[in-house]
Amino acid sequence: MSVNENLSVHGLIVQLPLDSINRIDTELITNAVSPDKDVDGLSCINAGKLSRGDLNDCFIPCTPNGCMELIRQTGVSVAGKHGVVIGRSKIVGAPMHDLLLWNHATVTTCHSKTPDLPEQVGRADILVVGAGRAEMVRGEWVKEGAVVIDCGINHVPDETKASGKRVVGDVHYASANQRAGFITPVPGGVGPMTVAMLMENTVQSAQRFLLRSQSHR
Amino acid sequence: MSVNENLSVHGLIVQLPLDSINRIDTELITNAVSPDKDVDGLSCINAGKLSRGDLNDCFIPCTPNGCMELIRQTGVSVAGKHGVVIGRSKIVGAPMHDLLLWNHATVTTCHSKTPDLPEQVGRADILVVGAGRAEMVRGEWVKEGAVVIDCGINHVPDETKASGKRVVGDVHYASANQRAGFITPVPGGVGPMTVAMLMENTVQSAQRFLLRSQSHR
Description:
2 copies of one chain form a homodimer. The first copy, chain A, is an alpha/beta fold and about 220 residues long. Chain A contains 8 helices and 7 strands, in the order ααααβαβαββββαβα.
């Protein structure tokens, strides 16, 4: 692709989801992006590097990268903690597991087939939820003092709103806020970080291109 | 490389470890193997596919693939179980996590920075150990009836042997055998499966090449 070859372009993303009606092969398209310009971090090569801990040699997907930045901002150290991730998607759960693991947390991944979610959540020092189910995680499940990061964006009916609906996360905020040491709201928590991390990845990409071009002189 | 392009060759592996004295870049060499012939499953692309659950479109590293086959042979279903993996290496821990997860277990990855290993092990319905520390996992940690898969190969001093040493796993077999429902010995457990899986991956590769060549006619 010409954009892959254009040296003045440092980042290239595929706006997902692709039209599912025409059965576009999403994997084929996302992997057509040069790994050097894959600032969304969604190509197989970048996912493989991340899964093996090569954090400085890949692009980290923006949402989990933003979650890590939020966790860092709490001042809570990740190493030696128990991290629990709910969800195993390519853009949230799977890379979030990798990031927590390679920042030296012990990590448990939960998903729709996990039979004892409340118990698993109760063991989390750091909880990241990307399940796509409105207010699924209840406050009483949360460990006292835990860091709770909510990646959910769900629309639920609300007759008090002009639109007839409102946005909630995957965590029941009001009750979880009673127990968590730190918690992100929805909206306004993880969402804005995702955009910021896309910019950061793009700047990082430009720096890498510049360094490579200098070393080739 | 000519071997990558030779259509009569369906599998190509790099014998690891590479000579560390000459600082050979192992990543560079393993990723030079065509993903289509990477029957060790060690390239970034295959690792990325596995980490995202594309199990039928990748080569699965041989040791964890053999572990999964051993687990299947017990008749214990993986879905909904709690799997615990000790170790996060490229050839055992990381891909084992992916395999258990995408066979729908809830999975916890432990490692050298895990502070409460006995408690984590005690929650495992399925325990896979690839830590490289002789007899580190004690029988009293193991959940009653658990499936215990030991990938460790450690040489310990033994004056009763002519060689002055013997091979043990990462699990203290005698005590763990008292509690486990199923347990693999060392030597003779996982080891022979690894070789078998390398053969299976190579046959699978040949089949894929054949199917592709037929579909191109």
